[in-house]
Specification:
This protein is an all-alpha fold. The protein has one domain (about 20-304). About 75% of the residues lie in helices and about 0% in strands. The radius of gyration is 19 Å and the shape is globular.
C-alpha cells in the first residue's frame, strides 16, 4: 500500500493520446493501496472461496477500488493542485496545459458513473462505502474545504478512504461487517496516516508556498519522520495486541516479525528522511501491507 507519487520529467515533450492523458491523470502507481485493502477486506470476510464466481467478484472489486475510485480521486487532486504543481512539477499534464478542462471533467464523470455502477452490482452496502469515498475525495482536494491544506485532517481522510473504506467495502461485498474487521481496518488506516506523509517530502517547497500545511512542512523533515514511523508502529502494535486478545497467537507472531523487519529501514529514514524517503516508501511500506494481509487471514479464524 502506498500513495507515493513518483513523477519524473519526460525525456522529450510529446503530446500523449487522449486516452493516455486520462490514464496519466489517474496515476496507476497510486492504485495499489486501495486495491490491496479491498482484497484484504474480502479475505477477512471469511466468505470468499476459490470459485470462479468469487474470483470474478474480487477482481471486479479490485478494479473498482484502484483504477476507478482511486483514479477518480487522483484526477480531482491534479485539477485542484495545478497552481502548486506549476511550482513543484510544471511538466505534469494540467499545469503544462497538455490536457483540457473538458477532458478532465469527462474523465471524472466516466469514473464517477463507473464506480457507482460497479458498486451497486456488488451490493448496496458496497455502494454506500463508494459514495462516502467519493465525497471524501472531493472534500480532500476541492475548495472551500480542501482538507489537504492541513496535514492531520487531509491525511486522515486519505488514509481512511484508501485503506479503511476499501477494506470495509471488500468485506461487505461478501458478508456483513463484523466489529473485529472494522477495528483492524481503522487501525491500519491510522497507520496509513503516517504513510500518506511520506509523499509530502518531494514537494515541501511548493506546499509551503501554496499554503499546504503538510506534516513535513509543519514539523520539519526530521520530526515528521519520527512521527511517521511512530504512527505506523503504534497502529501495528495495537493490531498485534488485538490478535493476542483474540488468542490467534500465530498471526500475532507473524505481524510482530513483519514489524521488526521494518525497523532497519525506519532507522535509515529518520536519520536522513529527505534522502531516503523513496526507499522507505518502497521497502518499509511493503512490509506494512503484508501485515495487513496477515491480519485479514487471521480474522477468518476470529470471525469463524
Amino acid at each position: 500500500m502506498t500513495s507515493i507519487e513518483t513523477s519524473t520529467p519526460p525525456a522529450q515533450v510529446t503530446q500523449p493520446s487522449v486516452l493516455r492523458r486520462s490514464l496519466i491523470l489517474m496515476k496507476p502507481i497510486t492504485w495499489f493501496g486501495p486495491m490491496w485493502a479491498f482484497l484484504c477486506g474480502a479475505v477477512a470476510s471469511g466468505a470468499t472461496t476459490w470459485s470462479l464466481a468469487d474470483i470474478g467478484l474480487v477482481i471486479l472489486g479490485i478494479v473498482m477500488a484502484g483504477p476507478i475510485l482511486c483514479g477518480f480521486s487522483q484526477v480531482i487532486n491534479d485539477y485542484f493542485d495545478q497552481d502548486i504543481d506549476a511550482v513543484n512539477e510544471p511538466y505534469r499534464l494540467v499545469p503544462s496545459g497538455m490536457v483540457s478542462t473538458t477532458q478532465i471533467f469527462v474523465t471524472l464523470l466516466v469514473l464517477l458513473v463507473a464506480g457507482l455502477f460497479v458498486s451497486s452490482y456488488l451490493n448496496l452496502r458496497v455502494m454506500y462505502f463508494v459514495i462516502a469515498g467519493q465525497v471524501l475525495a472531493v472534500l480532500y482536494s476541492a475548495p472551500p474545504i480542501r482538507a489537504k491544506r492541513n496535514g492531520w485532517v487531509g491525511n486522515a481522510m486519505a488514509a481512511f478512504s484508501y485503506e479503511g473504506l476499501a477494506w470495509m467495502a471488500g468485506h461487505a461485498a461478501f458478508a456483513g461487517l463484523t466489529w473485529q474487521s472494522v477495528l483492524i481496518a481503522i487501525l491500519y488506516s491510522l497507520g496509513a496516516h503516517g504513510i500518506m506523509s511520506i509523499n509530502d517530502y518531494k514537494s515541501m517547497a511548493g506546499d509551503k508556498d501554496g499554503g499546504l500545511r503538510t506534516i513535513p512542512v509543519l514539523y520539519g523533515p526530521k520530526q515528521a519522520a519520527w512521527m511517521i514511523v511512530l504512527t505506523m508502529n503504534v497502529a501495528q502494535i495495537v493490531v498485534i495486541a488485538a490478535f493476542l486478545y483474540w488468542q490467534v497467537w500465530w498471526i500475532a507472531l507473524v505481524i510482530t516479525v513483519i514489524l521488526l523487519a521494518q525497523l532497519p529501514t525506519q532507522r535509515n529514514f529518520v536519520r536522513n528522511p529527505q534522502k531516503t524517503y523513496l526507499k522507505f516508501s518502497a521497502i518499509g511500506v511493503s512490509f506494512y501491507v503484508w501485515g495487513m494481509m496477515a491480519a485479514a487471514i487471521g480474522l477468518r479464524s476470529v470471525i469463524g
